[in-house]
Design brief:
The protein is of the alpha+beta class and 328 residues long. It has eight helices and 22 strands.
Length: 328
């Protein structure tokens, strides 16, 4: 780096730019503002104290901290007025409305149930396996109170939400057997799971699950993408945060140039009461919109999909039959 040049970045971590200095080693504020509009100063991290140190400004000139050693090899970052920075951030949000990734509001972890555990798996082995995802607070296998034999399932709880999200988004091979990790199905949790899921319609055959995952990851952490087989022109996307799904409905979404329809996925009604109303995905029956849902099974390629009416269709009012009275 030339002694008459200075490395400056708009924010820490951004790519630095070489800014020319004056012959006396100072930097004109106008020179800085020509490259970084609205900047009013410079700062850098002191390598000795690790603290942020500001650069002295006098008569519209920025002066090096030490006249003897000059500016040094630091990468300086710009200082902006607080109001200016706030307006800049607002403009950025307005310019990119689709990138409104919703962070998880509930940052606490919850107990997870591990289903399908081999009988021989011990709690130590269970803990050792899931510690590869992060620190565990709980690792317990449920056992028969009489025989002490494993019941084939257990519970775990992570210390961090990020670890929980990783575990929920993958399948797990434990002692040569595939196991499922889920949030226990309470009434509240069932509502949470359904509100975390969206229905994506008008999906074309050239759109893959990876394309869908990549697009919706702009809005939140995606835990599952399901496209039925054989292809039926729709998909389901599940988020870790229940607040994401409702925010996506009613907006236009383009995936690989295709406009897709997004709606919240509604829970299925009990099959016993509705099996005579199982229908194909045609849009509506008797004027009632269809609500789509899917069941989960271990084989992704064989997940059954059923489409149910939200309520039973009303009785059709037919005109009374006019019968000819019998004669004779």
């Amino acid at each position: 780096l030339d002694e008459y040049e200075l490395l400056v970045a708009e924010e820490q971590g951004d790519e630095a730019m070489e800014i020319p200095l004056e012959e006396d080693g100072t930097l004109l504020l106008s020179t800085l503002q020509a490259q970084f509009y609205g900047a009013c100063g410079l700062k850098f991290r002191n390598p000795e104290s690790k603290a942020i140190r500001g650069v002295r400004l006098s008569e519209n000139k920025l002066h090096p901290f030490s006249p003897e050693s000059g500016w040094g090899s630091h990468v300086y970052t710009c200082v902006f007025p607080k109001e200016k920075k706030r307006k800049s951030d607002d403009k950025l949000l307005i310019a990119t409305p689709k990138k409104k990734r919703i962070e998880s509001r509930n940052r606490t972890t919850t107990d997870l149930i591990v289903l399908g555990l081999p009988w021989k798996t011990t709690e130590e082995e269970l803990r050792k396996y899931f510690e590869s995802f992060g620190d565990l607070l709980v690792a317990q296998i449920k056992k028969d109170s009489t025989t002490g034999q494993s019941k084939g399932y257990g519970f775990i709880r992570f210390a961090k939400l990020e670890s929980q999200m990783k575990a929920l988004s993958k399948r797990h091979l434990i002692d040569s057997r595939w196991c499922d990790v889920k949030v226990p199905n309470s009434k509240d949790q069932m509502q949470h799971q359904m509100s975390s899921k969206i229905f994506v319609g008008r999906v074309t055959e050239d759109i893959t699950s990876d394309d869908i995952r990549e697009y919706f990851s702009n809005y939140g952490v995606v835990t599952d993408v399901f496209i039925p087989k054989p292809f039926r022109a729709f998909a389901f996307v599940t988020f870790i945060d229940q607040h994401v799904a409702p925010s996506l409905c009613g907006e236009d979404h383009l995936i690989k140039g295709t406009s897709v329809y997004v709606a919240t996925a509604s829970p299925p009604l009990p099959l016993a009461r509705n099996k005579k109303y199982l229908v194909n995905l045609t849009g509506s029956v008797c004027g009632f919109p269809l609500c789509a849902s899917h069941q989960t099974c271990n084989d992704e390629a064989q997940r059954p999909v059923r489409v149910l009416l939200p309520t039973q269709p009303p009785h059709l009012r037919l005109p009374p039959l006019h019968r000819t009275p019998k004669t004779g």
